[in-house]
Amino acid sequence: MSSSLRLASSALRLSKASTASPLRTAAFNGLRAYSSGKTTSLKDTFAAKIPENVEKIKKLKSEYGDKVLGEVTLGQVYGGARGIKSLVWEGSVLDSEEGIRFRGKTIPECQELLPKAPGGTEPLPEGLFWLLLTGEVPSEQQVRDLSAEWAARSDVPKFVEELIDRCPSDLHPMAQFSIAVTALEHESAFAKAYAQGMHKSKYWEHTFEDSMDLIAKLPTIAAKIYRNVYKDGKVAPIQKDKDYGYNLANALGFAENKDFVELMRLYLTIHTDHEGGNVSAHTTHLVGSALSSPYLSLSAGLNGLAGPLHGLANQEVLRWLEKMKEAIGNDLSDKAITDYLWTTLKAGQVVPGYGHAVLRKTDPRYVSQREFAQKHLPDDPMFKLVSQVYKIAPGVLTEHGKTKNPYPNVDAHSGVLLQYYGLTEANYYTVLFGVSRALGVLPQLIMDRAYGMPIERPKSFSTEAYAKLVGATF
Question: Regarding beta strands 92-95 and 99-102, do their DSSP bridges make them parallel or antiparallel, or are they unpaired?
């Protein structure tokens, strides 16, 4: 089938799906207006890969289904299932020494290979979404078409906007974010089609449509929460000829600063995906395995992301740095930093932003943000403080002896960058993380439905039962 026929077929499916919703009609009209019509769409690119990937999985299961992958210890069971090989996640793999790879590509490789906005230097998150779903690096035109499609689908139902408006201003932004995404279930093509009795072969198509609609609406929803809680409540409309990162920055009210727009593109790209075992990714996958819609699945993942041991960590880092700054003033000497680190540790606290459940080296996501700061804000006092902590903390933590990985993770840097450009409201930072994480977990949800992945149901035992299994007596 030619590319033009594929696009026509895809547009026809979208047109038919739009009959139940004015928003879908608007999305189709916008896509028709802005798409070039000369490249293969994301949906058709993914659809073409499904048969081959399904056969690969079938062969793997049939020929190697009895292969032992490792042993599970009782310590792992009581240690949060750490390190147990039991999840399938196609988009990324995290190596303890090398860091994250997105479909086999490192962050520096993604920064080099993925398309950028005209005149821009950072990769567009649309390109990474395409890579995560298909395993292919998209062309510049394919990314422009995807930007246009998301912009065309971006209208948020009025009742959702009103729901956000009615939230009390002191309700945490992440709670508001989760509420809004859950409310979008009203628009779910998957839920409506399932209620009508669709065939399981169609699961992925409706999951795809829901995911595309959901991603498209997140910048406006996220910005509305920000503008309601911290500003004047006014949100700039999505610009149909702009990319996702620009539209998010613009809706927040920061698009006049081109460097901030570039930061948003980088931030959204590097925070998308980090294997499937982290709380937000696993929760989204788990809830989706029950055939809950992408809206309900992502909302569940966002609730996990809101926890202080997960996505909330970036604001904890910034608060800790600000307290350090108050304590040591302008003294950024090695001794001052060392003393403050030991004060934190001796108080029974952790050094926020340092350590990782899997990584045993500096997080490549931290490195990419550090390089951005070295280029755009080398003389910022908070960046200088972060740099000094980066220099001193690994040695202190190694001497302390209770941290398996004494190096910084992604959270150790992002807050300082956002603050520099005027987005100083730390309570809000996890919402930006949530927008980005949607771009990483929803591709896997689409693949789960396309490949027929079952409901997740591991076996559990009581402590007494485990004691019996291992022959323990009390």
Answer: antiparallel
How many of the other CB atoms lie within 10 Å of CB of 306? 22
> What length is written for the chain?
474
Q: Are 239 and 206 in contact (CB under 8 A)?
A: no
CA distance 270 to 111: 10
Residue 118 within a domain: no
Distance from C-alpha of 92 to C-alpha of 444, rounded to nearest angstrom:
10
Q: Domain range holding 349? A: 311-421
Q: What is the pTM of this model?
A: 0.90
Strands 105-106 and 99-102: antiparallel
Domain presence at residue 471: no
pLDDT digits (tens, 9 = 90+) for 263-305: 999 999 999 999 999 999 999 999 999 999 999 999 999 999 9
* Assigned domain for 55 exists: no
Sign of CA pseudo-dihedral 79, 82, 87, 91: positive
Q: What are the pLDDT digits (tens) for 376-434?
A: 999 999 999 999 999 999 999 999 988 788 899 888 899 999 999 999 999 999 999 99
Report the candidate in 322, 342, 324 with the shortest Cα–Cα distance to residue 332.
324
Element (H, E) at 162: helix 158-166
Rounded Cα distance between 469 and 340, Å, is: 47
How many distinct structural domains can be found in the chain?
1
Q: Is residue 288 part of a domain?
A: no
Angle at 405 between CA 400 and CA 407, to 5 degrees: 95
Contact 438, 389 (CB under 8 A): no
The 10s digit of each residue's pLDDT in 203-244 is 999 999 999 999 999 999 999 999 999 999 999 999 999 999
Q: Which residues contact 250 (CB under 8 A, 6 or more apart)?
A: 236, 239, 242
Q: Are 298 and 221 in contact (CB under 8 A)?
A: no
Q: Strand, coil or helix: what is 104?
A: coil
Catalytic residues: 310, 356, 411
CA distance 443 to 90: 9
Integer Cα distance of 108 and 226 in angstroms: 31
Residues 92-113: what's their mean pLDDT? 91
Nearest alpha carbon to residue 222 among 236, 243, 212: 236
